[in-house]
Amino acid sequence: MRQVVLERPGQFTIRDVPPPEPGPGEALVRIRRVGVCGSDLHAFRNTHPAYSFPRVLGHELGGDVVSINGEHAGISAGDRCAIDAFLNCGTCRACRRGRRNCCESLQFYGIHVDGGMQEFMAVPVELLHASARLTHDQLALIEPLGVGANGVRRGNVQPDDEVLVVGLGPIGLAAVQFALDAGATVRAVEPLEWRRALVARLGVEVMSEPDGRVADVVIDATGRRDVMERSVDHVAPGGRLVFLSVVPGRVSFDDWQFHRREMSILASRASLDAFPDIITRIEEGRIDTSLWITDRMALEEVPDRFEGLLTRANGMKVMVHLE
After folding, report:
1. Which of 63, 153, 220, 298 is the most exposed place for a label (fewest CB within 10 A)?
2. Which overall architecture, per CATH, does domain 2-130+292-321 show?
3. Interhelix angle for 170-181 vs 136-154, to 10°?
4. What letter would DSSP give residue 109?
5. Domain 147-267 in CATH: superfamily?
6. Per-residue confidence (pLDDT) for residue 51, from 0 to 100
7. Cis-peptide, bond into residue 191, ω within 30° of zero
8. The pTM is what?
């Protein structure tokens, strides 16, 4: 089978290797779509501390079940499926308390172990989520949608809340969509005009910079320390601030403002068992995926085209095809 390997930062190669043999409780999955994530770009630039090399990138995955080693209800050969992006130990304190996304030894496909930029993967069956109605494109979008959905869950967004989303990349877009689906009134801040125009199609008020109004829930999806620190200023008394993105080092804020407003500051990591719910929402038409994919490439094009993604002026999500 073909696989694209990031041998070292800045250098991809295409290898021809035998397909994996699924172990007990695993399925052999033919990968059909791989969404390119910002973390993949960080790996290419060597600006993400979690990567080691060589590594097969890709954790936003849609594919077809080829075979299953053993009997498992709910998943069959031939199913189209999304693949949950991480492996947890099941025994640490977080896992025992139902917080598998906070596992002490969490491993992500495409980051800690090889991911989906290859024709086949052996995947634990419990990580597969099937849908006969969604396309491979939509199934590959479940993972990034889940990150935004988890931020909305962590912020406990309610129908009477005013929500401000700061940063309208893919994760910010997902946060907007799930906040709207929760019934909240949503505003968004984004400096790039094309992103504002895209998200405005959802009926959201968008602006290039904050206008002084506060919100019950502020969701920061920028991954920029200076913006994250200023996001505290936009939280209403008794409100919640959710950080969806990660920066190295420390983030600071005015302690008096924090206490005076009795605000809550929350982290959000990946998603927590959200795949079935997100699939249902897309099937019901509650979450629109038509805004997401703005470019495509074949697997064999990745070595030549990937570097260009670092400097592209626009584009929400690039989808890699494996046919």
Report:
1. 298
2. Alpha-Beta Complex (3.90)
3. 70
4. B
5. NAD(P)-binding Rossmann-like Domain (3.40.50.720)
6. 92
7. no
8. 0.96
